[in-house]
Amino acid sequence: MDRKMTTTKEILFKPSKLGKLEASNKLAVAPMTRVSANEDGTVGPLMKEYYEGYADGGFGLIITEGLYTDKLFSQGYRKQPGISSVKQANSWRPIVESVQQKGAIIIAQLMHAGALSQYNPFANTAMAPSEVQPLGEQMPFYYGDGPYRLPRSLTTSDIKEVVEGFVFSSLLAKQAGFNGVEIHGANGYLLDQFLTQYTNLRTDEYGGDLVNRLRIFKEIIEAVRQSVGQDFIVGVRFSQKKVNDLDYEWPEGESAAETTFKLMRECGVDYIHTTEPVLSVPAFEGSASLASLAKRISGLPIIANGGVVEPQLAINVIGNGNADFVSIGKAALANQDWPNLVKRSEDTNMFDFAMLAPIADLENSKRYLKNM
Predict the structure, then answer these.
(1) Using CB atoms within 10 A as the burial measure, which of 90, 138, 192, 200 is most buried?
(2) Are 256 and 201 in contact (CB under 8 A)?
């Protein structure tokens, strides 16, 4: 485990820099898919109240659920919001403006599902680095059923379109008023599929050694940065574990972290967001946590995610310098006012998976919380 340091909860509520902006505290809402958009990918009727609730609840930073980036192969789930058109982007404006007026920074997470696509009205096949059927089965609480489809391998021309999709959606996010974007490179989705050896069997410049497997990250981040400028926040998210593979570890171990996080610094990202089952557990045997490695190697602001229920874990991770922010997922679903409750030393609700049953949408969550 990372070295522990005893400190007080006040450390969570100190302002902290992210890019050219300053967040009011070190507490972030983690990106969580809520399948509550309209069928056309625009913001659904409950989404404004949902995101406002986190801003009212004291979170200084809000990262949206993953937004699909093009009308080709990026959509992963039915009723997933997109940011692939002006109409979709404009539907976010009321949310963005309200959250910012309440004092929070809001970042759009950009996501391409790749082989893990469970639903895509724009295409009848999924695309991936290689024709490898994903492990596991689709997630029923995101409208999935049965095994994942065998994807088709992306051509180099397709990869160029993927990059262009991230750039276009970044520009749309900026025009919609978001404070920044987060490139979703984690959890088994497309970019993580390039990074993962068993899903990337390519023999061209996007496959083989780790530098080649990271090439698409480099191309996307550099193209996005060039398009949005230096004042717009650009972050990237990494994990080892995947939604369909909870056991995976980077085979190169700590050297993979060295290569990956150095490259992110060179590409000019403003922060790295790491997610693990428990954010303080060593990423590799005899090593430090993924967040701690990212901090030491890159020197960038780090958002750490994973397993925070009570404030002491967040206090320890921030206090010992292993991260600059802590992002909260399940505990935030059960407590949209988690920061305010912690600040007042009040009890928090425990997360219950019944909140996500039978579908992990806002309607079910709202009904559950109302009946508590």
Answers:
(1) 192
(2) no
DSSP state for residue 206 in the 8-state scheme = T
For 335, other C-beta atoms within 10 Å of its C-beta total: 22
Q: pLDDT at position 1, please?
A: 46
Rounded (to 5) percent helix, strand, coil in the chain: 35, 15, 45
Cα(314)–Cα(320) distance, integer angstroms: 10
b or e along 48-71 (b: 16 or more beta carbons within 10 Å of the residue's beta carbon)? bebbbebbbbbbbbbbbbbbbbbb
> Is the pLDDT confidence value at 109 over 80?
yes
Q: Which residues sit opposite 100 in a β-bridge?
A: none
Instruction: Name residues whose C-beta falls within 8 Å of residue 212's C-beta, 6 or more positions apart in sequence.
Output: 202, 205, 206
Does the active-site annotation cover 54? no
Report the chain's mean pLDDT, rounded to a whole number. Answer: 96
0.90 exceeded by pTM:
yes
| pLDDT tens-digit readout, 183-237 | 999 999 999 999 999 999 999 999 999 999 999 999 999 999 999 999 999 999 9
The residue ranges of every structural domain in the chain are 9-370
Homologous superfamily of the 9-370 domain (CATH): Aldolase class I (3.20.20.70)
**3-class secondary-structure state, position 299:** coil
| 155 SS3 class | coil
Selected catalytic residue, list 189, 206, 248, 271 = 189
Question: Taking a C-beta distance cutoff of 8 angstroms, is the pair 59, 332 a contact?
Answer: yes
Cα angle: 313, vertex 319, 325; to 5 degrees: 75
The radius of gyration of the chain's CA atoms, rounded to the nearest angstrom, is 19
CA distance 316 to 332: 19
Structure tokens that stand for 275 in this block:
């997610």
**3-class state of residue 284 by DSSP:** coil
Question: Degrees (nearest 5) of the Cα angle 48, 49, 50?
Answer: 90
Mean pLDDT, rounded, for 47-66: 98
Look at residue 370 in the predicted model and tell me its pLDDT. 80
311-316 contacts, C-beta under 8 A, 24 or more apart: 311/9, 311/12, 311/342, 313/278, 313/279, 313/280, 314/12, 314/26, 314/27, 315/7, 315/8, 315/9, 315/11, 315/12, 316/2, 316/4, 316/5, 316/7, 316/280
